[in-house]
Specification:
about 550 residues, alpha/beta, Nitrilase/N-carbamoyl-D-aminoacid amidohydrolase, 17 helices
């Protein structure tokens, strides 16, 4: 029964999109905990063990595909993430048994939402991919109120539905009065259908707002490990020089471009060579794009991804008694920071403004800093100049940044890959003035798995939360366009070279969610603190009473 619940939860995510699975998936966990709580012996450990099994299975069934990029990511999610959710389930059981049954029913969604909110923050083990509300990514008609609540509103809705389904089954098991069962069933129906009806009314009343911009997104279809271009069957073409590589991009874009195009988006790390702070202004790749744009499309702004190294001067190194964990060392003793970056090319900004990806994938782009420091402590670079340490940590920037089009007519949020999973994080771009979202990503690391489909579906939620149109350029797909209601305007076929063009609306208005962020998560975290304090006081009072006796 427990594994059935995990399968139901996993089936609610793309590509299956069986969202009723998330409405019932937690019920087996509640039922098992309820049975265990009747036996006081080893109750805590039993609840934790069963909960851990449930969440580990759910995590693995949903994100097993991460192994194609890194087994560390899978292990971190299954082992670490499951531990935290099993812990909060154990705390729910303690509240239910020490305080009251009703207190437990309040505590579980508070703990769950509080932890999901923590998962959205910037820390070493952050993993918000499996936030419950994300299951609605391909059901935009049902969750238009995300423009107020954000994705955590969807999580709250699903948690309440699961709790009511559990209460109804429990009432049947315990032979409660028929009227009470009917009352709970009616309440569950209202909880399900009132938000649905509200959302449908919002959906059909809302029309995209703002002025139009003509946008092109490029999908070159390249092998992420070799950077060779591929056909739709995954077969690789002959290797190209970096110059020919970029010219291939321009030839693909020429098929749909004209002088009326306002923006061209190219995928994450699209430029073939790693640029540096010493050579970016003389980069042959960037010069080709600048000359091509100037000659053919002077009204177009180009947003492209690139890998970027920033080498550190002696002055910077002298100021740091302990080098940051993001500092990496070359074999000749120089230090640098690596950025997964984006750059704007549009003729008016010859300074080539950049934005650096600042939400990093655990295990692939980020590991806890103490792992890096421990390796440095054990490594003697002076006696062995060729010594190396495992340090995948990319550097980030503290503030969000937006890029303006020509004449400041439009402003894009340059969202890079994994950043599009973080709803409240994206609102910082919008508050700074972004009137559409440009996502550049490279989902090809995962291959033809549910990964790229889940990632695409999250972009639809970001469109609703912010009421911003989304233009998305992905190396092998899915590239496309999403309107402010979360509807798909165009989408590419996975593993197919393509170039799409679409007119989208640029909106200046701010939603409630953009203004106030994850209010539900903050309330959940606040309730969690109060409930846990109450639980601690109750336990201490009980212990003191037993001591006096």
């Amino acid at each position: 029964m427990l594994l059935l619940g995990a399968v139901l939860m996993a089936s609610s995510f793309a590509p299956f999109d069986f969202f009723p699975g998330a409405m019932l998936g937690l019920v087996p966990l509640f039922l098992i905990e309820d049975e265990i709580s009747k036996n006081k012996r080893c109750r805590k450990w039993s609840v934790f063990g069963y909960a851990y099994l449930f969440f580990a299975a759910f995590n693995f069934f949903t994100i097993w595909w991460v192994k194609n990029a890194s087994w560390i990511g899978v292990i971190a999610s299954v082992v670490v993430n499951s531990f935290f959710f099993a812990l909060l389930t154990s705390l729910y059981s303690s509240v239910k048994n020490r305080l009251s049954f009703k207190a437990g029913l309040i505590a579980f969604p508070a703990f769950f939402l509080g932890w999901e909110y923590i998962e959205f923050q910037d820390w070493d083990l952050s993993w918000p991919w499996l936030t419950l509300g994300h299951v609605f990514g391909n059901w935009p008609k049902l969750i238009q109120w995300f423009s107020y609540s954000g994705v955590l509103g969807g999580s709250l809705w699903l948690l309440i539905i699961n709790i009511y389904a559990f209460l109804i089954i429990k009432s049947w098991r315990e032979n409660e009065e028929q009227f009470l069962r009917f009352k709970k069933t009616l309440q569950l129906a209202l909880i399900i259908f009132l938000p649905l009806i509200t959302s449908l009314i919002q959906y059909y009343r809302y029309e995209d707002e703002g002025f139009e911009q003509d946008v092109v997104v490029l999908q070159p279809n390249m092998n992420p490990y070799t950077d060779y271009f591929m056909n739709s069957m995954g077969g690789e073409y002959l290797s190209l020089s970096s110059i020919e590589h970029v010219k291939k991009f321009t030839k693909m874009a020429d098929k749909v471009m004209d002088e009326n195009v306002n923006w061209l988006l190219m995928h994450e790390t699209a430029l073939p060579k790693t640029e540096t702070n010493y050579g970016i202004h003389y980069s042959p790749s960037i010069q080709i794009l600048k000359n091509w744009r100037k000659a053919k499309y002077p009204n177009t702004s180009i947003l492209t991804g690139l890998a970027y190294r920033e080498y550190k001067t002696d002055d910077i190194l002298m100021k740091n008694t302990v080098l940051p964990a993001t500092y990496k060392r070359t074999y000749d003793g120089r230090y640098y920071e690596y950025f997964n970056s984006s750059v704007l090319i549009n003729g008016e900004h010859d300074t080539l403004p950049q934005y650096h990806k600042s939400r990093l994938v655990i295990g692939v782009e980020r590991i806890p800093a103490y792992f890096v420091y421990f390796q440095r402590y054990l490594t003697d670079f002076e006696s062995d100049p060729m010594a190396d340490t495992y340090n995948p940590n990319n550097a980030i920037q503290s503030e969000r940044e937006i890029f303006y089009g020509l004449n400041d007519s439009s402003a894009v949020a340059p969202v890079i890959c994994y950043e599009s999973v973080f709803g409240e994080y994206l609102t910082d771009y919008i508050i700074k003035g972004a009137n559409f979202i440009g996502i550049i990503t490279n989902d090809s690391w995962w291959g033809d798995t549910p990964g790229y489909q889940q990632h695409w579906s999250f972009a639809r939620l970001r469109a609703i939360e912010t009421r911003r149109s989304v233009a998305r350029s992905a190396n092998t797909g899915i590239s496309g366009f999403i309107n402010q209601r979360g509807d798909i305007l165009q989408k590419s076929v996975y593993l197919t070279p393509d170039c799409l063009r679409q007119k989208i609306k640029c909106n200046h208005n701010l939603t409630f969610y953009v203004k106030y962020g994850d209010v539900i998560g903050k309330i959940g975290l606040g309730l969690t603190i109060m409930i846990l304090l109450n639980l601690i006081v109750k336990k201490l009072t009980h212990r003191e009473a037993n001591t006096k006796i």
